[in-house]
Design a protein that fits this description.
The chain is mainly alpha-helical. It has 9 helices and no strands. The longest helix is centred in the C-terminal third of the chain and has 54 residues. One of its GO terms (cellular component) is plasma membrane.
Length: 209
């Protein structure tokens, strides 16, 4: 590996940095974008079951908010109804929508950085190719003779940097698309859960003339 880095020249170091950052982001998102941490499948039914006859206590609502991101959205609705017994349905929806925006923003964390690496890695590889081509032309002496060592080094720099750029960009782009799809799916799940919980919570609202 060290010999490859030496053959690729100094332009390989930005690509190595990008690869380390991309790997760290991919592992971080794989861990945090899991269903139990974002939207447990049975959480909504449990909330409806607990609040079937009365609103849960503040302690229960706090534990719900800490359970997952979906729990935070559902807890926002419960807290809104508990804080204002005459709350209107649009106001209740707005409270849950605001919590949902925060939750979606949390799921999208670092995705822009990963997408930037996927787009920048081929350009960094192209930059290394240009540097290699410059070294290739620099190996040509004015008399027409060439330096074989400089020529071989220039070719290595050009090819290795192009390859490294693609090796980094392709997995980064694939995982970026994968994570983006998971975020969209979680967002839809939270929206549907909120829509289902709103009519249930409106039963506890005091109707006004």
């Amino acid at each position: 590996m060290l010999s490859i880095i030496q053959a690729a020249g100094w332009p390989i170091w930005p690509l190595i940095l990008c690869s380390v950052v991309a790997l760290a982001l991919i592992l971080e998102r794989l861990y945090h974008l899991r269903a139990p941490l974002i939207a447990p499948p049975t959480l909504l039914d449990e909330v409806i079951g607990v609040s079937r006859n009365s609103l849960p206590t503040p302690d229960v609502v706090s534990k719900l908010a800490e359970n997952s991101l979906l729990g935070g959205v559902l807890a926002a609705g419960l807290q809104a109804v508990a804080a204002d017994a005459r709350i209107t349905e649009p106001a209740l929806r707005q409270a849950m929508e605001n919590a949902g925006r925060t939750a979606v923003h949390t799921t999208e964390r670092y995705l822009n950085t990963l997408g930037t690496i996927a787009a920048a890695a081929p350009l960094l590889g192209l930059f290394g190719t240009v540097v290699g081509m410059i070294e290739i032309f620099g190996s040509q002496a004015p008399t027409g003779a060439s330096n074989p060592q400089l020529l071989a080094h220039g070719i290595s720099v050009a090819l290795y940097n192009t390859a490294f750029g693609l090796i980094i960009a392709i997995p980064s782009l694939m995982f970026y698309r994968y994570f983006r799809g998971k975020v969209d799916a979680f967002q839809l799940t939270m929206e549907l859960a909120a829509e289902r919980l709103v009519p249930h919570l409106m039963r506890f609202v005091v109707r006004t003339a």
